[in-house]
Design brief:
Helices cover 46% and strands 15% of the residues. By secondary structure, it is α+β, with helices and mostly antiparallel strands. It folds into two domains: 3-147, Phosphorylase Kinase, domain 1 (2-Layer Sandwich), CATH 3.30.200.20; 150-254, no CATH class. Strand 7 and strand 8 form a beta hairpin.
Length: 263
Amino acid sequence: MNLQEQLNRIQEMMTKIANEDFTDYGDLSNPDKLKSDFDKYISSDEPRGVGKIHQSIGNNLGEIIEILKQDFGFKSIKYVGEGYYGMAFDVGKNKIIKLTNNKDEIDGIEYVLEKQKELGGSVPGVVHYFNLKYYPTSNVYAILMDKVKPLSKKEETIYTVIYYEMANYSDSDFWDKYDDSNEDIREEFIEFLIDRLESPRPEDELPSFKIDEYDLVNYIDTYRELLTILESNKVPTEDLHGGNIGRKDNKLIHFDVMSPPKK
């Protein structure tokens, strides 16, 4: 078989998968959005959330959805979207169910659930988790959590860019430069961040945004408030990028907390 024949064979296989898999959606109110994300997974070299879940459950999504409705007591489920490690569903009553098979993420959620027990309520700065179930036959976890308002694309991008510059740790060089008493050093650093937002690196896979210094400083200070709250409550901030931040009661809140460092 020559190279062209091999390529044709691969294309036939991928087309077959796209046409046959994930066709049973169960009682899902918006399967077209899920199909769109699944099609992106088919054409991608590296699977994201939908692709990772598909690798675990195959085309049994409809069955999983029916089980989720029974186990969590909800009448309808609407697909919301995907992250890097999983996919999320709106189940009404301001709650979300997320499917994931990432153990680090599950360890982080279990850590937060334990802290919720200690505090007798929500952990400051962290989305509230209600329940966690594991489905061994599919090797997938279902997480019931509060629904949060997503950030604007601009705000998400800003927090992701400063995360790339290690703003998610209060003892990092990022804050040394940001707080430097030498105004020239501080201004140079702010200008660097503005340039980073206006001309993102190809590996960032982020849109470009124009922003002035005043607005950027406000965003950075708001991020720092969340970081301070999380660190004071011993919540891991390893994954505190814009994609894992939302807003509830007009305050930033962290979700998809990763597991704490091993002692």
